[in-house]
Amino acid sequence: MTQEKLLSLEERRTKYSVPALEKALDVLEYLAEQAVPLTQAQLARALKRQSGEIFRMLACLESRGYLRREPATGAYSLTLKLFELSRTHSPYELLLKVAQPLMRALAEELRESCHLSVIHHGRVLVLAQAESPKPFRLSVEVGSLHSPMNTTSGRVLLGHMDEGTRDEILEREKQWQQEKPAARAAYLKRLAAIRSRGYERAEGERFVGALDIGVPVGSPQSSMKAALTIAMLKEKGGSSLEDMLPALQNCAEAIALQAGLKRGGEAHERNTARGGPEVRPV
């Protein structure tokens, strides 16, 4: 193994640092976090830089179309260029194109919201959501990031990963680092059970009265892994999570098949075993 491969991410960042690029990225990331226009002086204070240090960065980013400067106040804000770049060659483009009409059909059929998630840089990223037609419903913000350990989607994804990838994600979690061996063993046992039965459910995990049930999209061998989850409010006399499971699984399999994350034979075998109808887009 070469010395380069032994260097940690932080060590590589220090060794190959490009100060000008670091400053520009600091500006973009801070504006994204604040979500409000900020002046050159405000940015300099927040980033602990001299105002003159970031002047050229701001001018360059504005000229390249990443920032917009308000004429009246001189404050800078992000344009949509980063968003456009992220969508140009998004690895999730086909998955979203396939999933969205199927998810809308599922939400209409079950009258409950559902969302599609993936693991992105160690966090659960919500890629898409189809909202329930009910006036009272649960909603998860598209683009939001969540814990992989403490969410239904996160556990579904962790449970269907290879051990090496799973352990790498868990080792970066502060909660996992603080867990005792017995708690770690119990959590891994829970992930194994999720993989075995093919779904995860939770009641009131983060919010009182909230119910979640999630299934994997694709097979454990898929290069891309996603989770499809129903999030709903507990209602008196309402449907149970288990009642919704067959339709949820059928939708996940239809997405996986059309996105190329599962072979047709796999989907047909499981669908025949359950005897459930395939969910089709409206």
Topology:
Layout: H1 3-6, H2 9-15, H3 19-34, H4 40-46, H5 51-63, E1 67-69, E2 76-78, H6 81-88, H7 93-110, E3 113-120, E4 123-130, E5 145-146, H8 152-159, H9 163-171, H10 174-178, H11 181-197, E6 200-203, E7 210-217, E8 226-233, H12 241-258, H13 264-274
Antiparallel strand pairs: 1-2, 3-4, 3-8, 4-5, 6-7, 7-8
Describe the fold and architecture.
The chain has a six-stranded antiparallel sheet with strand order 5-4-3-8-7-6. The chain has a two-stranded antiparallel ribbon with strand order 1-2. The protein has helices at 3-6, 9-15, 19-34, 40-46, 51-63, 81-88, 93-110, 152-159, 163-171, 174-178, 181-197, 241-258, 264-274, and strands at residues 67-69, 76-78, 113-120, 123-130, 145-146, 200-203, 210-217, 226-233. With 282 residues, it is of the alpha+beta class. It has two domains: 3-85, Winged helix-like DNA-binding domain superfamily/Winged helix DNA-binding domain (Arc Repressor Mutant, subunit A); 90-274, GAF domain (Beta-Lactamase), CATH 3.30.450.40. Helices cover 50% and strands 16% of the residues. The longest helix has 18 residues, at 93-110. The protein has 13 helices and eight strands. The protein starts with a helix and ends in an 8-residue tail after the last helix.
